[in-house]
Design brief:
Length: about 230
Amino acid sequence: MWQSRDKKELLAGIAAFVLMLTGWYLAWFRTPSEATMGDVYRIIYLHVPSAATALGVTATGLLIFSLLALWRPQEKYLRAQKAWSEVGLVFTIITLATGSIWGRPTWGTWWTWEARITTTLLLALLFLGYLLLHHSLPPGKQRIRICSILGILIFVDVPVIYKSVSWWRTLHQPASLIEERGRTMAPEMLSVLLLCIVFTIGMALALWRMRVTNLQIADDLENLEMRRLRS
């Protein structure tokens, strides 16, 4: 049973990785340079998909399984939460790192405590805090409930990040993909960016599924060891 599932998940992960590499290839070699920023703008093909994945997918996934766990406390929902927190932390760090690299030539600084960057850093710290809390609490329904409450609170930061450029004066540019007057990117750039977003989300889903399986195997082995010690 495990061997069949492992093969499917491995193939799904390889396919997601190949698609993500395909998106990067298109971004670097099949899109034109930006008129103002030149080639440095190409980092958006990693930065924007990572941000969309961290905010729109991992935090949402954590919220969904946190609500499910509060409704029906079960370890399988907690495993799903932890996996989303781990994947979310990775993509949030990538978002911050690529944003810093992008900020150096465009803003003249690697880091600034402006609203969107600061709230995104807070999201990374919240994901990390969730993992530390999960590790510090003993197994049981209390851990499920406490972690689930934190998972819901983490999602609260997502709309704050999204609206931060509107609520506060900030260096970060507002939404540049689509505005009220229409598209602000050339169609060939926008299409590749959307592909990169889809492929990055697919990679996140594949990583999450594999991590859930690994956590389940670890729990099964721990339960078997406990039964052996009791016998």
